[in-house]
Write a structure and sequence with these properties.
Layout lengths: L8 E4 L2 H12 L12 E5 L6 H13 L8 E5 L1 H10 L3 H12 L19 H12 L14 E7 L5 E4 L5 H11 L10 E3 L2 E4 L1 H4 L4 H6 L4 E5 L4 H5 L9 H9 L3 H5 L1 H5 L3 H5 L10 E6 L13 H24 L1
Parallel strand pairs: 2-3, 2-8, 3-4, 8-9
Antiparallel strand pairs: 1-9, 4-5, 4-7, 6-7
Helix pairs in contact: 1-14, 2-3, 2-4, 2-14, 3-4, 4-14
Keywords: Hydrolase, Lipid degradation, Lipid metabolism
Pfam family, one: Patatin
Organism: Pseudonocardia kongjuensis
Length: 324
């Protein structure tokens, strides 16, 4: 195995690249790989930072790698990006952030503290994903590549996985739940007997869950640069919305700021001997540079640039070994 410290571009095990190349050469379709391995794609979230992951998924699709995975995991924005890959909408995964979501109809800080959510999931689910980027949620029911969506139970803030849902309505509800932060994006979403909120609150990057679920190889797409993962931001003030969340439930504000919680999984991402790895192969891709995008950024130029950075990151790391 070949490992390197966390650095812009790639960190981890080149065995993941070898498996991707072998599967591409074999030419088998999604869900038909019989090489004895289980390859998981884990997509990080973070609101509009998801543009980086969107660009990465676009590059995976262009490289012909969209059907090489046995399962796809995602929290919050990462679940939406993962859905795009599973449904064959790789290009849309990148374009939707800059073209459709970087606007006040979707995110408007002036709505904070009013009866209208600052982040309008209604606009995303009932307008963008119906008119601009039509999405057939029922296609996830029969997808040969299962989607695993992380949500957080509102009552005790524990993470759970939603998968194998019976119909499109259930999948749409799951996607709303994984992106819902109280005060910012509306009330908890009831599915079954429980109420659920943003998956990133409970688990912003479910790499450990994928490994515990039997994945032998994991490709993890991050939405923060190596510097952002290993060093606190220059402006480390707790935002007003996070302080307000803490008044609802102590600790919820910090948990919702998944920048702090990404740091908790760094040892898993960087240490090949980590007990949760148990001999599995893990490759992590981070944006090679920052464009200044944060969770609630609506600067279209920055968001579009982030998608380009993500695309280039994956192309430069994966294209040479896959094409070899």
């Amino acid at each position: 195995m070949s490992h390197s410290p966390v650095s812009p571009g790639a960190h981890g095990d080149t065995e993941v690249l070898r498996l991707l190349a072998a599967r591409l050469a074999a030419g088998r379709g999604p869900g038909r790989h019989d090489d004895g391995h289980r390859l998981a794609l884990v997509v990080g979230g973070g609101g509009m930072r998801g543009a980086y992951a969107g660009g990465m998924v676009h590059a995976l699709a262009d490289l012909g790698a969209a059907g090489l995975f046995d399962e796809v995991w995602g929290s919050s924005a990462g679940a939406f990006v993962g859905t795009a890959l599973v449904l064959g909408h790789g290009a849309d995964a990148a374009r939707i952030f800059g073209d459709d979501m970087a606007c006040r109809e979707f995110i408007d800080p002036r709505r904070f503290g009013t009866r209208r959510p600052m982040v309008s999931l209604d606009h995303l689910l009932d307008h963008i994903l119906v008119e601009s980027r039509p999405t057939d949620w029922s296609s996830l029911v029969t997808s040969p590549v299962p989607l695993r969506v992380l949500v957080t139970r509102a009552g005790d803030l524990t993470p759970h996985v939603l998968t194998d849902l019976p119909d499109g309505a259930g999948w749409k509800a799951a996607m709303r739940a994984t992106a819902t932060i109280p005060l910012l994006a509306g009330p908890p979403v009831r599915i079954g007997d429980d109420e659920w909120i943003d998956g990133s609150v409970g688990d912003p990057l479910p790499v450990a869950r994928a490994l515990r679920g039997g994945a032998t190889h994991v490709l993890a797409l991050m939405t923060r640069t190596a510097d952002e993962l290993t060093a606190p931001p220059a402006d480390a003030r707790v935002p007003l919305w996070a302080r307000s969340l803490d008044r609802l439930a102590p600790g919820l504000g910090r948990m919702a700021q998944d920048s702090a919680r990404h740091g908790e999984c760094l040892s898993l991402l960087t240490d090949a001997a980590h007990p949760d790895r148990r001999g599995a192969h893990l490759l992590t891709l981070t944006p090679h540079r920052s464009t200044g995008v944060r969770g609630l950024t609506t600067d279209r130029a920055k968001v579009t640039a982030a998608a380009r950075v993500g695309y280039r990151t994956v192309s430069e790391v994966l294209a040479p070994p896959i094409a070899a």
